[in-house]
Amino acid sequence: MALTSWKIFNFFDVSEVKPPDDGESSSIFDSNDLHCICSGSDNIFVGSNDGHVRILSQAFKIVRTFKAHDNGPITQIKQVEGTALLVTISEDLSNEPVLKVWALDKTEKRTGAPKCLSSLDIHNGRKQFPISAFATLENLSQLAVGFANGAVTVIRGDLIHDRGAKQRTVFESEEPITGVEFREGPNTTLYLATTGRILTLTITGKGQGQPAKVLEDTGCGVGCMTFDDANGDIVVVRDDAIHYYGVNGRGPSFAYEGPKQLVSIFGDYVALVTPPKASPPTKMSTLRRFVGSQRDDLYNTSTFALLDTDLKYIAHTETLISQVKALFIEWDDLFLLTLDGKLFRYHEKTLQQKLEILYQRDLYVLAINFAQKAGVDTAQRNVILRKYGDYLHKKGDYDTAMQQYLKAIDNTEPSQVIRKFLDSQRINNLIEYLEELHDHDKATVDHTTLLLNCYAKLKDTEKLETFIKSGTNFDLETAISMCRQGSYYDQAVFLAKKNSEHELVIDILIEDSKKYEDALDYIWRLAPEMAYPNMMKYARILLEHCEEDATQIFIDYYTGQYRPREDVPIPTVQEPQAGGAYNVANLTSFIPLPYRQASVNPSPGTAGNQQLAGADAADAEAGQAPPEYDIPKPRTAFSSFVDHPENFITFLEACLKQENLDKSDMTDLYTALFEMYLETANTKKGEEKETWEAKAKKLIDGKDIPIDASNVLLLSHLSNFRDGTTLVREQQGLRFDIFRSYTSANDTAGAIKALRKYGPEEPQLYPAALAYFTSDPKILEEAGHELDLVLKKIDQDGLMAPLQVIQTLSTNAVATMGMVKKYLSDTIERERKEISNNRRLIESYRTETESKRKEMDDLGNKPAVFQATRCAACGRSLDLPTVHFLCKHSFHQSCLNETDGVEAECPKCAAANNNIRSFRKAQEDSADRHDMFQDALQRSRDKFGTISEFFGRGVMTAPTAE
């Protein structure tokens, strides 16, 4: 690139330095005595023609002057940065140049001048030619001096401690030396420049002693070569261009036509002095260039420029009315000294000032490169990018503008950019920016919402899926909400599942996608404590659409057999002719996923494999013990089965098969199942109805059923299930209530059935049946001959007195005399017979009583005649002593076994007499047992007969006073 195409800026503030007006200092720069100048260690050092060295402070005031050389002017001067060392060279063409090393921090006691550490004459083979180039290492271990005759002398030694030095001419040429520079490293290399060539020479290390290596067959003038410390290359300026050279050869070049006078490196810049016109070279003018300045060129103008060869711009350029004598750097500024004695300071503008200049000219690309080279922080660099983006946006280059905004995304308020691209025509740019915001974790809920809206507006499902599957950090709730609003349900499910939002996954599958089987399958894969709340929340919906599977998961969970389902990889049989793509696709089937939707219509080639995989999964689950979890109460699931009676019955029956059920749970289950049996029976007809009623009856049949009797009665009544009511009353002994329930319902057949079943054990049912049968003509007709049987049973068991029967039948005019004629005739006939028998019995009792009473009178008032001749005990003839009893029994006295003090009793009649006495005593004892009388009276069917019996026992006899 030609230098003329480079942008030109004014990045430097130029000011003329005015030395203090204190005599010698005021005219130090415009004095003809000044021959050379250098800077270092916060001072400026001036070498004069009279051999003196003057040291100037930062205020450009002479602070020290000393005589350095006695013969000839000081032509070369160098200060070692960071030390108090100063090197001076004085030349007198009649003698060899003299080099001295000064210690400025040490003084001679006699003169007060700095101490001269060492002094030596520089050899040039006794050829008196001026020094055209001079360079030193920082430690002064080596110095190189180039002469106008083409010789280069290298001085080695300890000049600081004056321990001697060796000189050697390392290079000779027919061309004058125009520049020398050292490059340190593993090998110390010396760059050489002549008027006709650029060379390198290794003076220490590997390669030492070898001839100089030519880098370029074109040389340069004096002052037109300098060393760039940043990269270790030398910069050479010639009439055609600016060239860089390294150890191995030529580097980049920058075309810049015109003569060159002086070059220097100032930071990142190349300081270049160019005279506007080049005088034709003559032998005399060439000699003058090496000897000194030209007086006749005092008023010639020259150009001074500062170039940045890296970014290819000119930082400063100006035309000087006088030629440049010297350039030097100190205090972070560049100083330029002209032949007319004026000193100019070049102070670089601040970074922000330079950027403002670039902004004004809309040179944002250069500003970005400039800031990057300057090493600015990210925030400041992003400011430039934003300004560049704004500039491009105004020009209508939206795509490039967005690229700049994206680069500056870390320090940019997103709203500033988003507002610029809200136009629907710029939606792609907006999407790009929003995606980048999410990649940098800078997106808010609003940004996520806006991005998803953009995808939805473009109907770009592919990008939407890529976004949500990329793992980019965004607000999950917002993303899912937007996907649901845009009907991207599969994507919403993916997001929720990925973030373990199980309830949200199920909600989307049920409420939005209507994929009920998938939702149930997902629930079945959750841990018990997570599956339960979701299962209960959506129980009714799942039962409505997936009856069998939903019922099964309830059964498994409430019976403690719940096992989370696990995916089993489905092996796919590879077709022999299938290609590579087919193989890759099949690999996806081996990826175990926590949730995967099965194909609705599996291909024939994989159907068998799916069945096999399903069997393997079932076997795997069967072999695993169910996880431990708290089994909820069965009643908590009852409300879920509303409108699903058959599934509810299946659930209840499965729960009842468990062992060690809690008593309260068993009661709930039995009660609910009994109710469901009855409800189902009410919806059926014929045999189906009888089947369900039989199940209900079987459930409550038996002892110790866990259902509360009141619940059974209530449910049976509500469902009009008489068998249930009857069964409960039977179990509780309420037979009369069973019969009454039939009679209250006017169920004559049921009443007859109950009478036949419970009548033998509950005789009071017959009087009630009599009253019921004769309560209505229709009932009496339905009863038929059953009335006769009832009357017969009443009559046989004496359940009612005939008068009571008559009173019952006379309550209403239903029964006729013809119906009870036989009963009445039989009753009257029986009564007559009983009366007749009673009369005969009374007469016999009277006769026997009179006979006994007369016998007693005779025994008490008349003598008794004993005619027995034999002993009633032994049967032998009676002989004295003999004992006769009034009962007409006679005994030998010896046969009686009499006891002293005890009255003798007839042995034959003793047993009968004892029985009579015991019976009498029992009567007397029972006379005071009124409770026995009451109990017998209550249990007796013949109350009057019982009273008569106890009256005969003396129960009602008044107690005698003693």
From TrEMBL:
CHCR repeats lie at residues 405-548. It is found in: Endomembrane system; Vacuole membrane. Residues 601-630 are annotated as: Disordered. Residues 871-909 form the RING-type domain. Residues 607-625 have a biased composition (Low complexity). It catalyses: S-ubiquitinyl-[E2 ubiquitin-conjugating enzyme]-L-cysteine + [acceptor protein]-L-lysine = [E2 ubiquitin-conjugating enzyme]-L-cysteine + N(6)-ubiquitinyl-[acceptor protein]-L-lysine. Its EC number is 2.3.2.27. The keyword Protein transport applies. It is an enzyme of class 2 (transferase). PROSITE patterns: CHCR, ZF_RING_2. SUPFAM superfamilies: ARM repeat, RING/U-box, WD40 repeat-like. GO terms for cellular component: CORVET complex; fungal-type vacuole membrane; HOPS complex. It is a peripheral membrane protein. GO terms for biological process: endosome organization; intracellular protein transport; organelle fusion; vacuole organization; vesicle docking involved in exocytosis. Keywords: Coiled coil, Membrane, Metal-binding, Protein transport, Transferase, Transport, Ubl conjugation pathway, Vacuole, Zinc, Zinc-finger. It holds the Pfam family TPR_PEP5_VPS11. It comes from the Eukaryota. The keyword Transport applies. Belongs to the VPS11 family. Component of the homotypic vacuole fusion and vacuole protein sorting (HOPS) complex. Component of the class C core vacuole/endosome tethering (CORVET) complex. This is E3 ubiquitin-protein ligase PEP5. It comes from Letharia lupina.
